[in-house]
Amino acid sequence: MKTYLPDTENIKPLGRTYLLNDTLWLTLSGSGAAFDFHGTKAAVTFLGDSIASRPDCKSNLSRIAVYLNGARVVDDRIDRPEKEYVIFESEEARDCHVEIVKLSEAAMSTVGLKCISADAEGGIRPAKSSSRYIEFIGDSITCGYGVDDEVIDHPFTTGVEDVTKSYAYLTAQMLDADYSMVSLSGYGIISGYIEEGQPKKEDQALPPYYDRLAYSEGEYMGKIPQNIQWDFRRQPDLVVINLGTNDDSYTQDFPDRQEEYRIAYIDFLKLVRSRNPQAKLLCTLGIMGDRLFPVIESAVDAYRAETKDCNISSMRFDEQLPEDGYAADWHPTAVTHKKAADKLAAEIRRLMKWQ
């Protein structure tokens, strides 16, 4: 088999990725690569980060999936410095479409796509890009936190986190759109999630990391993604923001805290707009509670009035229902995510005039 580097000559990047020493660094949920070939065999090799070899971090290992012609043929967590998977083998040459997706989030760990090996006529080539591109900014809901574990009192583990079952990924699939996800569990606009009586968690605010590749506890080839500037080269048609669920644990019904959130939300909208001058902005909330949604509406109105930017709107999600169940830590189930995706996709079709 011939070995191919995971660069843009051979693969289409999915989401935010970074080529580091000829290895494609996958950090955020949904990041990955896609390629096509006609051949008889293919394999992919991954490199683990600093978390992969630590026995005390088994619950934080990167979970990856590999799809062959739409079927998931690999679903594993990277628990060693290097892992190779044979993803296709046939006596007769066949057309193959391969997608590699990081199922788990950046904060816990990262992974590198070292190379692709294939017996392929004419080599491998990047998968075709969509003319539509959506960026999703969110928290654990966007990451697909706990979706594979429908026991509400179970703790977090990357082994049951699957972004392909999240409303964001499903929405992109429904609309045949390329996507990028900037999502970190527990993070918000001004505070991460807190228990009652705890102080505000300012270190779990997402906006400071928006300009970066990602945030992670995992070190890779001596680097951390929060030290790498994101280039915003490919501009999205639409940016969907779904932040406030964790802030709500801090703001609750306190008017001064809600006002703090509102002001910071306006500032974040200005940051997102400065990086994405032409994109429509869609501000959402509600899957795990919608108390802050009126504050978001107020922030959107104030931003629009101040900037004269009318390329922005808001949408309230329906709150998850008991009859649809709850995943780990009261997070949405696959059923809830699907309902949210249906609603969001319909709104995006209307907003973007996409058929």
Low-confidence segments, given as residue ranges, are none
By CATH, the superfamily of the largest domain comes out as SGNH hydrolase
Structural class by SSE content: alpha+beta
List the total number of helices.
6
Number of strands: 15
Radius of gyration (CA) equals 20 Å
Give the CATH class of the largest domain: Alpha Beta
Helix content: 10-25%
* CATH fold category name of the largest domain: Rossmann fold
Order of helices and strands: EEEEEEEEEEEHHEEHHEHEH
User: What oligomerization state is this entry in?
Assistant: single chain
CATH architecture of the largest domain: 3-Layer(aba) Sandwich
The profile of the biggest β sheet is:
10 strands, antiparallel
Distance between the termini: 42 Å
Task: Please tell me the total number of domains.
Answer: 2
- Beta content: 25-35%
Overall geometry comes to globular
3D structure, described in words:
This protein has 355 residues and is of the alpha+beta class. It folds into two domains: 125 residues, Jelly Rolls (Sandwich); 220 residues, 3-Layer(aba) Sandwich (Rossmann fold), CATH 3.40.50.1110. The protein is built from six helices and 15 strands. It starts with a strand and ends with a helix.
What secondary-structure arrangement, pairings included, does this model have?
Elements (H helix, E strand, L loop, with lengths): L1 E3 L7 E3 L2 E4 L2 E4 L5 E17 L14 E6 L2 E7 L4 E21 L8 E10 L4 E2 L6 E6 L1 H4 L23 H8 L3 E6 L54 E4 L5 H5 L3 H21 L4 E6 L7 H15 L4 E5 L17 H19 L3
Parallel strand pairs: 11-12, 11-13, 13-14, 14-15
Antiparallel strand pairs: 1-9, 2-5, 3-4, 4-9, 5-8, 5-9, 5-10, 6-7, 6-8
